[in-house]
Amino acid sequence: GGVTVSYFEWVQNRIGYFWSLERVHKRLGKMMSEAFDNVFETAEKHKVSLRIGAYVVAIDRVSQALKLRGIYA
Fold first, then answer.
1. Is residue 51 one of the residues assigned to a domain?
2. Domains identified in the chain, total number
3. The model's pTM
């Protein structure tokens, strides 16, 4: 969660807006829950461990970003 909260701080600094502690906790909880659900579903789908499921999710995200940028399309 620390890296995610650092990202929230960066976003807030970029736009000059500051969130309440309650809002930070709420957004962090939502992001962590969604991330876990995504990894869990991926692991179940491919019948692999959660660790491998997390790797699959991460590699897919990198692949999508590269395609959007026109790299290795």
1. yes
2. 1
3. 0.75
